[in-house]
Amino acid sequence: MRKPMLAGNWKMNKTRDEAISFCLGVSGKLPLDVECVVCAPAIILRDLVKRAPSNLAVGAQNMDYHDSGAFTGEISPIMLKDTAVSYVILGHSERRAYYNETDETVNLKVKKALEYDLKPIVCVGEVLEERESNKTNEVLKRQVLKAFEGVEIANPADVVVAYEPVWAIGTGKNASSDMAEDACKYIRDVLRTIYADKADEIRILYGGSVKPVNIKEYMSKPNVDGALVGGASLQADSFVELCNYQK
Ligand code: PEP
């Protein structure tokens, strides 16, 4: 009942021309039964929306939680809506680590995104020391409860949570599929305490060094509904392979 999702996070990569060649490279090769998404730098979103094949959705990688105002360098939800993107990544660990993103700002952003019909992909995950001191669940619970504090969810299919252990992002050290399943199941249990009747419809992705060679293993797990992929989403061929993990 939950449609699998494969979301690429391009981070600070790709010019407009590179994004357009990517669109040409994936065109006609993406499956219809997997929701395929690329989250791109804000400056190329409008072109990407225009050039993406119909079964490739486009997302942003961050946004501010104000509608407008004196926030130099920021992008508002109204601006994102104006580019016609569908998704926005919120609380990515790189934003938490380098740009002072906190559980509180993630919560404000989730509320704003939903107010403007932007579908949030909310990232949570522990750092290595937290995993090694058995604090993973404690961290996930805190991050999930705060991100969704006071958030009304009308359509659970429009809300996505990504479990991204920080130690596995961009390091090549992926979490085992059992670790991913345990964490995603735990996140669903936490969501169930807030959204009793909707938690089973919210998609939970795993992210952290996912590649064409390991995607199938993650997708075989009952609580892993998809993947958020950085490095391996940059090349059209690799993205096509990831999206077609069932073949
Ligand atoms: C990410 O950026 O969210 C990510 C999971 O990166 P990578 O796949 O490169 O580890």
CATH C-level class: Alpha Beta
Question: Would you identify the regions where 5 or more consecutive residues have pLDDT less than 50?
Answer: none
CATH topology (level 3) name: TIM Barrel
**Helix amount, in percent?**
25-40%
Shape: globular
Following the backbone from N to C, one meets helices and strands in this order, namely EHEHEHEHHEHHEHEHEH
Distance linking N and C termini = 20 Å
Provide the structure class.
Answer: alpha/beta
CATH superfamily: Aldolase class I
Short overview:
This protein has 247 residues and is α/β, with parallel strands linked by helices. The protein is built from ten helices and eight strands.
Structural summary, described in words:
The chain is of the alpha/beta class and about 250 residues long. It has a single domain, classed as Alpha-Beta Barrel (TIM Barrel), CATH 3.20.20.70. About 35% of the residues lie in helices and about 15% in strands. The protein is built from ten helices and eight strands. The protein has helices at about 15-25, 45-50, 75-85, 95-100, 105-115, 130, 135-145, 175-195, 215-220, 235-245, and strands at about 5-10, 35-40, 55-60, 85-90, 120-125, 160-165, 205, 225-230. It has an eight-stranded parallel beta barrel, surrounded by five helices. α9 links the parallel β7 (about 205) and β8. The longest helix has 18 residues, at about 175-195. The site of phosphoenolpyruvate has 14 residues, from β8.
